[in-house]
Specification:
The complex is a heterodimer. Chain A is of the alpha/beta class. Helix content of chain A is about 50%, strand content about 20%. Chain A has seven helices and nine strands; from the N terminus they run βαβαββαβαββαααββ. In chain A, the strands form three sheets. Chain A has a five-stranded mixed β-sheet, sandwiched between helices. Chain A has a two-stranded parallel sheet with strand order 2-4. In chain A, helix 3 crosses helix 4. The relative contact order of chain A is 0.14. By secondary structure, chain B is an alpha/beta fold. Chain B is about 40% helix and about 25% strand. Chain B is built from nine helices and 13 strands. Chain B starts with a strand and ends in a 6-residue tail after the last strand. Classes of the chains: A alpha/beta, B alpha/beta. Chains A and B meet through helix 2, strand 4, helix 3 and helix 4 of A and helix 5, helix 6 and helix 9 of B.
C-alpha cells in the first residue's frame, strides 16, 4: 500500500510567518492540521506518515490539535495515519493527549522495525499489533497460534486494531502499516 | 488622594499577598503609589506582579499609578537587567533614577520580562529560550537534556493560558537563582501573570453549578489544576496544566497558581507551602509560578 510522507517541519514553515521548528500553540496546531487534511484530500495514498524529524518542540496543545483531532476525523477520510521521526519528548506529549481521550496511533520506531502504539489501547491490542508486525500480518486463524492465544481472543484484539485504524485490513487479513 | 502600596523588601510569591493587600478594594478608589524604595530583591513573580497591577489599573481606567524605584543600586540594576523598567515606564509614572542597562542575555535572567498577547508571542518566547535553557539547565541545574524540552513545553502551556483564557495580555519572565531560604539550591523559575478574567470567571459558565455554594476562586483553581477541566467543552482541552503537573512530578518541581483570592499549589517534598490558601487579599487575573530545582545539591 502506498504511503505518503508529510514532513511536519516543512508544513510548519509554510504555515507560520516566522521561521520556527517548534510546534506550539493551538492556532498553529489547527493550521497545520488543516494543511494535513488538505494533503490527505489531494493524495491518492491511503496511508499518511506524519514525519516529526524536523520538529524541535511539540507541546501538549499542538499534539492535541494535530494528532488527536486528526485521529478523531480520520475515519471519515478512509485514511490511515502513522507517525515517524519521533523523539522521546514528542512521544510523551502525544501519548499524554491521546491517553486522556482514549485514542491511539501507530508509530514507527526510529531504529526501524514494525510499528508500535502511542496512546491508549488494551494490552491485548498492543501485543497483537506487535504480533502483526513481527509475523507479517494475517487473520485470527494464522495469528492465534503465533500469539499463543485462542482464535476468539485474537479476533477481538485484531478487530480493535482495525477499528482504531492501527492496521490495514484487506479481505479479512490484517497488515501492518509500513514506512514510506 | 494617593494610596501607598509598599513593595516587600524581599518580593517573591510568599510576599505577594502583602503586596496585594496594599491595594485594598479593586479597583482602588485612590491613585496608587507603588513604593519600591526599600525593596532589596524581587523574583520574576514579584516583578511581573507589579506590571500586572499597573496593567489592571490602566484597564480599569484608573489614574496612571506612581512607582518609586529601589534605593539600592544593585536592586535597581538587577530590575533594569530583567527588562522590568522598560515595560514599567508605559504603565507607571516613575520616580527615581532608572539605570539605562540593556536586558542582559548572559546572566541568570533566562528570559527577560516579556509581554504575551498572542500566539506569536508564545512562539517567540519558546524560540528565544531553548538554546540558553538547555545550557543552563544542564550546567547549573544538572538536569538531563530531556528536561529542557519538558521545560519549554511547560513554558509554552503556561503562556498559552494567557492567550486562551485571560481575555487580555500578560507577562512572562524566567530566571535562575539560588533559593537559599527554601531549598538551598539553584532553581529555575517561570513566572506568568495576567490581569484578565481569572480562573473563577473563566470557568463560571461550565463549572459553577457543579460546585453550588462551594463555587469560588479556590474551587475554580481546583477544577482547573486538579481535575483538568477547561471552559471549552472540547475533550482535548485542559491538557496544558495536566502536562505541566506531569512534568513537574518527574523533576520534583512546584506549580502554584494564584487567582482572585486563592492560591493552589502542587507542593513537592522540599517545600513547606500549604496546598491551598483561600481568602487572600484580592488581586486581578491569574499568576502562575513554576519552580524546577537543581537535581544535585551544590556543595
Amino acid at each position: 500500500m502506498m504511503v505518503q510522507t508529510i514532513r511536519l517541519g516543512h508544513v510548519l514553515r509554510e504555515t507560520v510567518s516566522s521561521p520556527t521548528r517548534d510546534l506550539v500553540t493551538r492556532p498553529t496546531g489547527a493550521a497545520v492540521r488543516t494543511r494535513i487534511r488538505d494533503e490527505m484530500a489531494r493524495s491518492s495514498c491511503r496511508t499518511m506518515a506524519l514525519d516529526f524529524s524536523d520538529v524541535r518542540l511539540l507541546d501538549f496543545s499542538c499534539a492535541d490539535e494535530i494528532v488527536a483531532k486528526l485521529l478523531v476525523t480520520v475515519p471519515e477520510t478512509e485514511c490511515y495515519v502513522v507517525l515517524q521521526g519521533l523523539r522521546e519528548d514528542h512521544v510523551e506529549a502525544i501519548d499524554h493527549v491521546l491517553t486522556r481521550q482514549a485514542l491511539a496511533v501507530a508509530a514507527l520506531p526510529a531504529e526501524g522495525g514494525p510499528p508500535g502504539v502511542v496512546g491508549r489501547v488494551s494490552a491485548d491490542a498492543r501485543a497483537a499489533l506487535v504480533g502483526v508486525g513481527r509475523f507479517g500480518g494475517g487473520d485470527p486463524m494464522r495469528l492465534a497460534p503465533l500469539l499463543g492465544w485462542s482464535e476468539d481472543r485474537t479476533a477481538d484484539a485484531l478487530q480493535l486494531l482495525a477499528l482504531l485504524r492501527l492496521v490495514h485490513v484487506a479481505d479479512g487479513t490484517c497488515h501492518p502499516l509500513t514506512r514510506s | 488622594m494617593t494610596r501607598v502600596v509598599e513593595v516587600p523588601t524581599y518580593f517573591d510569591d510568599r510576599a505577594f499577598d502583602q503586596f496585594a493587600q496594599g491595594f485594598g478594594a479593586w479597583p482602588p478608589d485612590a491613585r496608587i503609589l507603588v513604593d519600591a524604595h526599600a525593596a532589596q530583591w524581587a523574583s520574576p513573580y514579584g516583578l511581573i506582579g507589579m506590571l500586572t497591577a499597573g496593567q489592571a489599573l490602566a484597564e480599569a481606567g484608573a489614574e496612571k499609578p506612581l512607582l518609586t524605584v529601589p534605593k539600592a543600586d544593585d536592586t535597581r540594576r538587577y530590575w533594569a537587567k530583567t527588562g522590568f523598567f522598560r515595560h514599567a515606564e508605559a504603565l507607571f509614572e516613575i520616580h527615581g533614577k532608572v539605570p539605562r542597562t540593556a536586558p542582559d542575555q548572559t546572566s541568570d535572567v533566562l528570559l527577560d520580562v516579556t509581554p504575551v498577547r498572542a500566539s506569536e508571542d508564545v512562539h517567540a518566547v519558546v524560540d528565544r529560550i531553548q538554546d540558553r535553557a538547555s545550557l543552563m539547565m544542564s550546567e547549573k541545574l544538572h538536569l538531563e537534556a530531556k528536561a529542557t524540552m519538558g521545560f519549554a513545553m511547560a513554558l509554552s502551556e503556561a503562556c498559552q493560558n494567557i492567550v486562551e483564557h485571560a481575555g487580555t495580555g500578560g507577562w512572562v519572565a524566567v530566571h535562575v537563582y539560588t533559593w537559599r531560604r527554601r531549598i538551598g539550591r539553584k532553581v529555575v523559575v517561570i513566572a506568568v501573570s495576567d490581569a484578565g478574567l481569572g480562573f473563577r470567571r473563566s470557568l463560571e459558565t461550565t463549572q459553577s453549578k457543579r460546585y453550588g455554594d462551594r463555587w469560588g476562586d479556590a474551587s475554580a483553581l481546583e477544577a482547573a489544576l486538579i481535575q483538568g477541566v477547561s471552559r471549552f467543552r472540547d475533550p482535548g482541552r485542559g491538557q496544558g496544566l495536566a502536562g505541566i503537573k506531569r512534568y513537574l512530578t518527574r523533576w520534583q518541581g512546584k506549580i502554584s497558581i494564584r487567582s482572585g483570592t486563592a492560591r493552589l499549589s502542587i507542593v513537592p517534598e522540599w517545600d513547606d507551602d500549604v496546598p491551598l490558601a483561600d481568602q487572600l487579599p484580592f488581586f486581578p487575573g491569574a499568576q502562575v509560578q513554576v519552580v524546577i530545582p537543581a537535581q544535585v545539591p551544590e556543595p
